[in-house]
Design brief:
It contains twelve helices and ten strands. The chain is α/β, with parallel strands linked by helices and 326 residues long. 48% of the residues are buried. The structure holds glutamic acid.
């Protein structure tokens, strides 16, 4: 019997983790849920870790165990959650909006009707980091330079394209666009293999710290025409890169840009009790959660219900009603 139990556990664990099959927890059994995040030097990865840590404290009570996966970012996470390969994902609010409407990357697939919002998390800003010696003093100087605009599957790629377009720069014609993951960009910048990179990320981020901490001096470049972007796209807002987190950059003041919000999403197919338990644990342990990353400094419970465009999952609604938040 004991042997059989061990066998079924070892067999089920990797399968559940691999296929992200969240099912109704059966008494005494553990439901494994996987959260898709981003690169390990971003803020999504530690955010997935923070959620998992809070939920796993009570894993015996709920029979739920959260694991975290490093991924290519928002677009990948939405598609993996919709395909049932992941149970939850952290995604940019603009990507949540586009997937729901069937815009941008979802033009051919159409609206993602099973997409469900759970809560929003930290603000993210479109951050442009340039090497001090690359001759980039203004945004217009990006022309002709080698710039990482973001990997396919990331949230930032479209943000970079939008920022460039709003300033009359066609990324296909006017610059040498690279598509590497944000985690690799700081190393490439320090090695002189790229002149600048875009990253849509919360602050402080490990990747941006890494980029500012090397021998090659770097600076943040402001994004002009933000008003044009916020007027055209409902999901963009004015934002700043907070310089206090990056004392080794050569900037003296916060840098103007635009931003979105990181949001926690799932699928309508994920059981109500699983989403309820995760929502409840994060909100009931809100002060502990906030301490897990400096990017959460600005969070409020009510604010975490803002910036969501997909319908809220019924498990989360159940908790928000109980807690008087909705
Ligand atoms: N915003 C990025 C994306 O959606 C990820 C940022 C992070 O990992 O913190 O791809």
């Amino acid at each position: 019997m004991k042997k059989l139990l061990v066998f079924s556990f070892t067999l089920l664990f990797p399968m559940a983790a691999l296929f992200g099959m969240a099912q109704e927890p059966v008494r005494g059994k553990t439901t494994f849920v996987t959260i898709g995040t981003g690169g390990i030097t971003g803020v999504y990865y530690p955010t997935g870790g923070a959620i998992a840590r809070i939920v796993n404290k009570n894993r015996k009570m709920y029979g739920i165990r959260c694991t975290v996966e490093s991924t290519a970012g928002s677009v990948f996470n939405i598609n993996a959650v919709m395909g049932g390969d992941l149970d939850f994902g952290i995604v940019q609010s603009d990507r949540q909006y586009q997937a729901l409407k069937g815009d941008a990357e979802w033009k051919t697939k159409g609206p993602q009707n099973d997409l469900r919002a759970v809560f929003s998390i930290h603000p993210e800003s479109i951050t442009l980091v340039a090497a001090g010696d690359a001759g980039i003093n203004t945004f217009a100087n990006l022309k002709g330079k080698r710039i990482n605009i973001g990997n396919p599957g990331s949230g930032q790629r479209q943000n970079s394209i939008d920022a460039l377009f709003a300033n009359g720069i066609d990324y296909k014609k006017n610059l040498i666009a690279e598509g590497v993951k944000a985690a690799e960009a700081p190393g490439l910048l320090q090695d002189g293999r790229i002149d600048a990179f875009f990253y849509t990320v919360g602050h402080p981020s490990g990747a941006i710290k890494e980029a500012t901490a090397g021998k090659r001096k770097v600076k943040f470049i402001a994004i002009p025409n933000v008003d044009k972007l916020t007027a055209k796209f409902p999901y963009y807002a004015k934002a700043y890169v907070p310089i206090k987190f990056y004392p080794r950059s050569t900037n003296k003041e916060d840098v103007q840009t635009f931003g979105v919000k990181a949001t926690f999403i799932t699928s309508a197919k994920v059981p109500e009790n699983v989403v309820y338990a995760i929502t409840k644990e994060v909100f009931e342990n809100f002060e502990d959660f906030k301490k897990l990353h400096p990017a959460y400094e600005v969070l409020s419970k009510q604010g975490m219900l803002e910036g969501l465009s997909a319908p809220i999952h019924k498990g989360a609604i159940k908790y928000y009603k109980e807690a008087g938040l909705k």
